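Table 4 source record.
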Amino acid sequence: MFFGVNMKSEILYLIKWNINDKEALFKYASDPDIGPIAGWLPHKTIDDSIFCINNIFNGKECYAICLNGSSEPIGAIELKLNGKTDMTEKDDECELGYWLGRPFWGNGYMPHAASMLIKHGFLDLGMNRIWCGYYDGNHKSKRVQEKLGFKYHHSSEIYLPLMNETRIGHVNFLDKEEWEKNVRI
């Protein structure tokens, strides 16, 4: 098992966040159409982005998404392992979380990045189930999860302290056995 490995495909690569990524993070995370739909406030200053890199994007399986030929992060993706997620308490399950800068929406980058990380989760990290969720109104995230083969599990009201509001959250899952049937490894 290995952590923090960089992953690359013909389209993009995933790399660990670095404090030097703060300007790129701020550029996309300050967009009011990005954070609120995912349950977090837009970054108001570069200090918000520095805090995020140092304290939120520091998980063992948290990565910046970069297009090949560029070193600028365009989004973030993470497998939140046991202890970093409230979706499971099992060591062989985790939660997939992600967001992408608005200029890159609609190009298939997020399903591609998520496919890479899901493969890593199942094959390298020994996961048997990956959870993922979205809030009402986040049709893009719902569509990404459908493309990846996630199945509906439940919906519930969730209080979001950063937003000071309650929303309906929808939780989906993908089992390794089902993934293996539908993916070309």
